[in-house]
Amino acid sequence: MSRTVKKEIKPKYKRVLLKLSGEALMGPGKFGHDQETLQRICKEIQSVKKIGVQICLVVGGGNIYRGAAGSNVGMERASADYMGMLATVINALALQNALEAMGLDTRVLSAIPMDTVCEPYIRRRAFRHMQRGRVVIFAAGTGNPFFTTDTAAALRAVEMGCDAILKATQVDGVYSADPKKDKNAKRYKKLTYREVLSKDLAVMDASAISLARENKIPILVFSIHTPGAFARVIAGKGRFTVIEER
Questions:
Q1: Is residue 9, in this structure, part of any structural domain at all?
Q2: Residue 2 pLDDT > 70, yes or no?
């Protein structure tokens, strides 16, 4: 599929939250941002905006700093998590810069107030930005230690009234094991929230799955590395795994 979305694509969802890992921004590198990868991801977002979908994002910070990794080597967990939250702000600003260079009006709202570089997270303000057609990027997770950006994604999706959460990963759906390590790993086309929890599948953490389940928000898992995948998934096409109640 070309980088421009074909007109016949009709979105199934009006408003979605895209969850990106920090690692997705690294490209072939081992740290930070790969500019080519950043541009490609932003073009995917631009293509979905063109078909009339309202988009908000939550991005992780693992390409810069992981709070869990810091705590594993002796750092106090809360401090390590706050450092990880600051890394997500850096990623959010990088995405904002790339999106605005493409002509997309974008706002970064941080759960940790830092007025010099972005807006503080206020739910009604964020909701208004989305109503006006802006891309909204939620930074700094939930603003609290001990919670992942997966949980922040589920929380913001509920607060914004999103129709779906799109989890962009390194593979084209949910597998029974890591397909890069186990060639016999089974790919699931559909799962329930309960199955994800009972099988302990590494999709999103349990609190995020539970929050999505309670609010009946489907989670669609797809590969961020497949060109045009974001737009196809929005239309219910392509390769992805959907997690919802049957």
A1: no
A2: no
> Residues near 75 by Cβ (< 8 Å), separated by ≥ 6?
none
**Taking the CB of residue 158, how many other CB atoms lie within 10 A of it?**
17
Going by DSSP bridges, is the β-strand pair 190-191/135-139 parallel, antiparallel, or unpaired? unpaired
Separation of CA 229 from chain center: 14
Has residue 1 been placed in a domain? no
Task: Give the pLDDT confidence of 61-73 residue by residue, as tens digits.
Answer: 999 987 667 667 7
Is residue 203 assigned to a domain? yes
Determine the Cα–Cα distance for residues 144 and 218; give it in Å rounded to an integer.
Answer: 25
For residue 89, what is the domain's CATH number?
A: 3.40.1160.10
Burial class, 30, CB count within 10 angstroms (exposed 0-12 / middle 13-18 / buried 19+): exposed
- Alpha carbon distance 191, 243 (integer Å): 5
Q: Is the pLDDT of residue 130 over 50?
A: yes
Residue span of the structural domain in which 223 resides: 15-243
